[in-house]
Design brief:
7 helices; 232 residues; seven-stranded mixed beta sheet; alpha+beta; Aminopeptidase; 7 strands; single chain
Length: 232
């Protein structure tokens, strides 16, 4: 008998979204956004830099966040900007889509919007990200991001401290912040390929990246078994 696979949950049909720069009027969604960030990280078995509702609300008030709302007013997605080393580096952090609206292409729209906002506010900054997902790598490549080594990212200790909530933090530190399960990607405004080139590169190397992610996960799990009952 052929093995049956579970279909991905599809978003409600006919729903439209407004993707815009967040403001003070959106702060009531802060708690819901933080709750979903934490729940999503636990479901993936990874971690994110934990942020409080007050922190998320402040990003909204500063105009350093993008929010997506469904046409009925439901919160649908979110992402915010963080800066490091006096604005030399910019990270688009906390990308999250409400579970009921996933697989709708909304994450891509949010990523494009927050990238535009980052380029507008910090035109000379390098924009970077860390991800374990091929879907996010694909979206990043469409914007002109390139895979890079960790040494090309910010050296700001505060940024790396945000990884403490990740289950793979021990791996990161054992590698002296030079490697981990995440793939580093960077957009350098002064030295970058055009999006068409980075998209083509991702298409050519997708299978390689996928194999590398699996191999890296396998070997690091052998060296750093997950914590169980408080013990390694």
């Amino acid at each position: 008998m052929a093995k049956q696979t579970k279909d991905k949950e599809q978003p409600p049909s006919g729903v439209s979204f407004i993707v815009e720069i967040a403001s003070d009027q959106h702060t009531p969604y802060s708690q819901q956004i933080c709750d979903e960030m934490e729940a999503s990280a636990k479901a993936r078995g990874t971690g994110i830099a934990k942020r409080s509702p007050d922190y998320v609300a402040q990003k909204m008030r500063e105009g350093k966040a993008v929010i997506a709302l469904a046409d009925n007013g439901d919160w649908a997605g979110f992402c915010y900007i963080e800066t490091w080393e006096h604005g030399m580096y910019v990270a688009n952090s906390g990308l999250i889509v409400s579970p009921k609206f996933r697989n709708s292409g909304l994450a891509k729209r949010i990523k494009h919007k927050i990238f535009e906002l980052s380029r507008s506010r910090y035109p000379g900054s390098k924009i970077f990200g860390l991800t374990t997902g091929l879907a996010v790598m694909k979206i990043n490549s469409e914007l002109g991001y390139e895979p890079v080594t960790y040494s090309e990212l910010t050296s700001d200790d505060e940024f790396w401290a945000g990884c403490k909530s990740c289950v793979n933090y021990d791996i990161l530190m054992s590698k002296e912040r030079k490697n981990c399960l995440c793939t580093a990607m960077l957009y350098d405004p002064e030295d970058h390929y055009e999006p068409a080139e980075t998209v083509e590169h991702f298409k050519e190397k997708k299978n390689v990246y996928e194999r590398l992610l699996h191999i890296k996960q396998y070997w690091l799990d052998k060296v750093f078994p997950k914590k169980q009952n408080g013990n390694k």
